[in-house]
Design a protein that fits this description.
The complex is a heterodimer of chains A (206) and B (267). By secondary structure, chain A is an alpha/beta fold. Chain A contains five helices and nine strands, in the order βββαββαααβαβββ. Classes of the chains: A alpha/beta (206), B mainly alpha (267). Strand 4 (60-65) of chain A pairs antiparallel with strand 3 (262-263) of chain B.
Chain lengths: 206, 267
């Protein structure tokens, strides 16, 4: 196994009842790459990512992770009764971070610094998604697994997200992003199309 | 060790914050309990009834009005405790799973919920006891408080468990309301005068209801009887912990590059 591999998924199968979603998926993610996973609705992209981060177990196959990771689920997973600052405090404990400098930097970068005392239940859909993304990035992990992280973002924030993803790749982070937007494909180093339960690598789009 | 304490303290603080921000529960505590007790006091018949406590083996003669006030208080606090604990657990459930995936210790998250329940039980008990004392001087206020607290813990534990198991807020609300309705009805000497069915003792309120009724009007020792509900509290807390651990059984802390790779599953 090459030393710069961060994630290695081999022959992963997953079914929900009789419905087979993943039928032998292979994916290797190295350091310093921006990997896109695309596919039709319901093709199993989110299932694959949940298996990749360890939230779901595959029926067959192996998943090996070689670094800490940050996971941004497709739907914002936040607690409506807690404020933005309280979310950061909880995840500071989870990630064992001594300080929250990086987290607040991300909050400012994504443009919701004015909402630090606002409860998640009172945030707009786009801002909830920004918080969702911040919780995945705030510990600056070597591997990022992001499931359509920019849903509800305005165009400026959407652009800032891709700038950030590019910076992280430049710093040697590995970033896996599920996307279904054609105009996003140009940002990826490699694009993997999930079709009929398998990943098909398509050439770098740029 | 210090990290474990921090994890517990932070989780406890935010669990209590969640309870305080449950506006419906706070409104129910402020208005529902006193209103219900007041309405019963103002409208229920004030004649004496005789009922026997199968758990304590005593016969009690008491005012029907006051008996219904005790049963209504038990109903109010168990609905509120069950609802509060269900909502807090249910609304934080997905986030708790995400926190565990990110490395938050499971035990601290769940123990914080149980300790928050203990604190809520203490406050709710003191408040309800004071409201009952305004109606008449209870024979054993301490024993009535113990019975109220035990009832709150039993239904609070059920609420936490339901929060991990049920799928929607409506399901949880109905389960709490219907369970307490049946339980209180079966334990009340007004709606179930015989009160000698053998299966009654299986219900969560069996011990607290009999202890509260006997301690409100007599000097019979009823603490052990109230404590019967702690079996429900213990069982539901353990089941909640097991459910949470089962759901997150394969979550592992991310490994470092220098460690050997973690194999999630290989058939």
């Amino acid at each position: 196994m090459a030393s710069d591999v961060r994630l290695c998924i081999s022959a992963v199968h997953k079914s929900y009842g009789r419905r087979s979603v993943l039928r032998g998926v292979d994916l290797t993610v190295s350091a310093g790459v921006l990997v896109g996973v695309v596919g039709e609705n319901g093709s199993g992209k989110s299932t694959l990512l949940r298996i990749a981060v360890g939230q779901l177990t595959p029926d067959r196959g192996t998943v090996r992770r070689f670094s800490a990771l940050g996971y941004c689920p497709q739907q914002a997973v936040v607690n409506d009764t807690l404020t933005v600052a309280q979310h950061l405090r909880l995840f500071q404990v989870a990630y064992r971070l001594p300080r929250l400098d990086r987290a607040w930097e991300l909050v400012e970068l994504l443009g919701f610094g004015g909402e630090r005392r606002t409860r998640a239940g009172e945030l707009s859909g786009g801002t909830r998604q920004k918080l969702n993304l911040t919780l995945a990035l705030m510990h600056d992990p070597p591997l990022l697994v992001l499931d359509e992280p920019y849903q509800g973002f305005d165009w400026d924030t959407h652009q800032r997200f891709w700038q950030l993803a590019g910076q992280l790749r430049g710093q040697g982070r590995s970033v896996v992003v599920v996307s279904h937007l054609l105009h996003d494909l140009k940002y990826f180093d490699t694009v993997h199309h999930l079709r009929d339960g398998r990943l098909h690598q398509e050439g770098a789009p740029r | 060790m210090r990290h474990q304490w921090t994890a517990f303290a932070v989780a406890l603080g935010f669990t209590l914050t969640g309870h305080l921000r449950n506006r419906l529960a706070m409104a129910m505590i402020a208005f529902f309990i006193p209103t219900w007790i007041y309405l019963v006091r103002a409208t229920a018949l004030n004649k004496d009834i005789t009922f026997s406590s199968s758990a304590l083996g005593v016969e009690v003669v008491a005012s029907m009005n006051r008996t219904i006030q005790v049963s209504s208080s038990l109903h109010a606090v168990t609905v509120i405790a069950g609802f509060m604990m269900f909502m807090a657990t249910f609304s934080a459930r997905d986030m708790d799973l995400r926190l565990v995936l990110a490395g938050y210790p499971r035990l601290q998250l769940l123990v914080a919920k149980v300790v928050a329940l203990l604190l809520v039980a203490a406050l709710l008990t003191g408040y309800t006891l004071a409201l009952l004392q305004l109606s008449w001087p209870l024979a054993q206020p301490g024993a009535v408080a113990a019975a109220l607290a035990a009832a709150i813990l039993a239904y609070g534990g059920l609420g936490i468990m339901a929060g991990f198991v049920l799928r929607s807020e409506l399901e949880g609300f109905f389960v709490v309301v219907m369970a307490t309705l049946i339980d209180v009805g079966m334990q009340s000497p007004v709606s179930n005068p015989a009160g000698d069915q053998p299966w009654l003792s299986l219900l969560p309120l069996y011990g607290p209801a009999q202890a509260a009724l006997v301690a409100s009007f007599t000097t019979t020792d009823s603490f052990a009887c109230a404590a019967l509900a702690l079996r429900w509290f213990a069982a539901t807390s353990v089941l909640a912990l097991l459910t949470f651990c089962f759901r997150t059984r394969h979550y592992g802390r991310p490994i470092t590059a220098s460690s050997s790779p973690r194999r999630l599953r290989a058939d």
